[in-house]
Design goal:
Blueprint: H1 10-30, E1 41-45, H2 53-57, H3 83-90, E2 110-112, H4 127-130, H5 137-158, H6 162-166, E3 178-182, H7 185-194, H8 197-220, E4 225-229, H9 238-241, H10 259-282, E5 287-291, H11 293-302, E6 311-315, E7 319-321, E8 324-326, E9 331-334, E10 337-340, E11 350-352, H12 360-371, E12 376-377
Organism: Eucalyptus globulus (Tasmanian blue gum)
Keywords: Glycoprotein, Hydrolase, Signal
Family: Belongs to the 'GDSL' lipolytic enzyme family.
Amino acid sequence: MAIGGGVPSLPCLALLLLLVSWNVGLLAIARGLPPCEFPAIYNFGDSNSDTGGISAAFYPMGSPTGETFFHRPEGRASDGRLITDFIAEHLGLPYLSAYLDSLGRSFRHGANFATGGSTIRRQNESFFENGVSPFSLDIQTAHYDQFVARTSYLYKNARAEKFRRSRLPRPEDFSKALYVFDIGQNDLAAGFRKMTNEQLNASMRDIVSQLATAVQHLYQQGARTFWIHNTGPIGCLPITLRYIRNPMPGYLDEIGCVKDQNEMASEFNRQLKGMVMQLRGELPEAALTYVDVYTAKYSLIANSTRAGFERAGKMCCGYEWEDKHVWCGQKASINGSEVVAGSCEDPSIFVSWDGVHYTEAANRWISEHIISGLLSDQPNVPITHACYRL
């Protein structure tokens, strides 16, 4: 279902979801394949899947984040749950605790190494200037190595301390866990700030190669099941579109997104998919699933009204006045008056939470369409059967 061939309508997408899920179900039954029993999830990524890492590392994320589901800030850049949370729910596992947030957390069923602002390649930019996290993907995998070594030692030496053991992962579970990647959007965003499109395009191979290195490293440590998200349509983000005035013909696509930015995201995704296919041949015991999150997000934006999202092109949380923008939850002085950027009355009718991240309602919609296997390439395998090489 290529975007270049036209975006499917919501009814068509729903029909395809039904047919593909039905066919995958028949395939699994015919082969006698029961659902995988994942004891844990280990996630690597950026703010699209960060469940509290960057908040613990720098400063607590404040209101109104988390208001819809958690009813308090829980380190997520949304009003509620993320795709990562819906994946955990679907697999019957607890929400992932952030590795960097150790207070009162249990890591028996996995850990989240993602942090807001993370990139695949290290960036020479400050988190406080441009929101780029120092925890790039190589640092996240180093954190994983430390996590495995430290928890395995503690588990082995806990002995009769049942409470302590109950919060630690079982060493034998690391090879049975699901390893999720959702990262790359910030590499593109940094490229748009610092490079020409030609330079960014030339850097794609190295960016994707470094993600491949992370997968290979985890495989060498015993990981076997990988669920790899591609990057979304960055040219459709409201924070990008708000600065556009009188665009030249052809600058925006048919649904009003920045065309060249989405083309760059599509090129990244093309190379990422090629990398996944190559790794399938190089890692004989690995099951690697490439997940087309781009199509899910673009389809939602293109068909938002029929999906029940009345304010698809606007952000729920934030404040805009003329050429000024105040980020969600922040304060600013405008014309001598203090302004607090609060949230909208009903986040469920918005696709975008804060101009960059998605609302819980949008995350739920996207999750339903990727978890089912409709948009995965392994071939079309649902997440419940991702441990098999089909």
